[in-house]
Specification:
Layout: H1 9-16, E1 19-20, E2 23-27, E3 34-37, H2 39-53, H3 57-66, H4 74-87
Antiparallel strand pairs: 1-2, 2-3
Helix pairs in contact: 2-3, 2-4
């Protein structure tokens, strides 16, 4: 299954990942599974999406490691956003 039109990671989050009763529902663009996350996890994924779009995902990964690493499961979801971006033929690193 493919999304109907190409979207950037931030557009994906805004269009398909709503906040519900104080939690964040993430629709994985690769597996189409949903994940109910905390607002903190939403912030991390939004920062990852911005880093991907700005071509600095590698630097973002280094910042995450310096801060103590990923929350369980978030690295996989951030890489799904990266895959979405790369599927549209755009590099996420500089």
């Amino acid at each position: 299954m493919r999304i109907p039109d190409p979207r950037t990671p931030l557009e994906w989050l805004n269009a398909y990942c709503p906040s519900l009763d104080g939690q964040f529902l993430f629709l994985d663009p690769v597996s189409w599974q949903t994940h109910l996350l905390t607002p903190g996890a939403e912030l991390v994924l939004r920062e990852a999406a911005l880093a991907i779009e700005n071509g600095r995902f590698d630097a973002f990964l280094a910042e995450i490691e310096e801060a103590g690493g990923w929350q369980p499961g978030l690295a996989f979801l951030a890489h799904s956003l990266l895959h979405l971006h790369e599927r549209n033929g755009i590099s996420a690193t500089r």
